[in-house]
Amino acid sequence: MASETMWFWLVHLLLQVFTVRGKVPAIIVFGDSSVDSGNNNHVSTVLKSNFAPYGRDFYDGKPTGRFSNGRIPTDFISEAFGNKPIVPAYLDPTYDIKDFATGVCFASAGTGYDNATSDVLSVIPLWKELEYYKEYQEKLRGYLGKERANEVLEEALYLISIGTNDFLENYYIFPGRSSQFSVAEYQNFLVQIARNFVSELHHLGARRISLSGLPPMGCLPLERTTNIFFGSECIEEYNNVAKDFNEKLKGMVTDLNKEVAGIKLVLSNPFDILSQIIENPSSFGFEDATKACCGTGLFEMSYMCNKRNPFTCFDANKYVFWDSFHPTERTNQLVADYVVKNCLAQFM
Ligand SMILES: *[C@@H]1O[C@H](CO)[C@@H](O)[C@H](O)[C@H]1NC(C)=O
């Protein structure tokens, strides 16, 4: 009996040590609409989602500027790490450094690795997200003291999710980059920017960094709609571009882990789990993976997805996609669970 009690306490103690040691003090997010929690509300752009029916399944049914009916993957990841269930947007004046000390989001919908991509819809370029991060570092040092702040910045988990818009909003739409680069060259150009960004982040004190791969972007409802006379199939070319890009990112991640002392960089690749969901929606409890919930589901997003649209679905949980470009909260949760388990577990 006595030894049983001792074992109990020993295990209990070990678990505690493990939890405390493994704890990530803050989640720090960079990227595009896949992870923007409301920064675009405070930017002069037409790419917004801070109105109904966006957010209708969020806390209090509040539209926050997240491009979904509810939470986005970074919210779920933050929660899985024992932090807040939402990651607040840096430009939202209702939050301050007290809130941002455990989680902050610099992402901006519509942005990309390429400066030319953020120009398309006048959103925050990636380099500017990093400028905001530097400003945040100073505020955090003012709030926590230099030593503790540097500790938090070093132990924080950095999540970067970006790149889809470089292809779908820029390369394949405008002649600029596509006349300058072949697709393969453009991929290399973007991977180099990703590499510089991660290196700079490391230089500024970050250690645990997750870089997200691209989704099967040819299966986004908006892209399928351009294929409407061919059965609304996924655009295989775009899916292959995403796959190739992810392979290149993976190579870069492997290289940086070898070259940069102390960095722990992982590729969080949502491609496979999303492909499985899209190919076999019913086995994940979905009824529709081709059309989105909002509006006709064929093309609506941002201001086109609004509460005057009579076609919006009743139960978003039955849909893989919320608007023509973004997943529902349920899909976001499945992706986050997958990423936490398969890519981020080492940071827990
Ligand atoms: C993007 O723009 C910023 C600010 O002008 C500049 O510092 C940076 O070098 C540019 N990035 C690329 C890849 O051209």
Q: Level of helix content? A: 40-55%
Mean pLDDT: 95
Shape: globular
Describe the main β-sheet briefly. Answer: 5 strands, parallel
What is the helix/strand order?
A: HEHHEHHHEHHHEHHEHEEH
Radius of gyration: 20 Å
| Total helical elements | 13
**Which strand order do you get reading across the main beta sheet?**
2-1-3-4-5
First and last CA, distance: 33 Å
Write the layout of secondary structure elements.
Layout: H1 2-22, E1 27-31, H2 73-80, H3 97-100, E2 103-105, H4 115-120, H5 126-144, H6 146-155, E3 157-161, H7 164-171, H8 175-180, H9 183-203, E4 208-212, H10 221-225, H11 236-259, E5 264-268, H12 271-279, E6 321-323, E7 326-327, H13 329-342
Parallel strand pairs: 1-2, 1-3, 3-4, 4-5
Antiparallel strand pairs: 6-7
Helix pairs in contact: 2-13, 5-6, 9-11
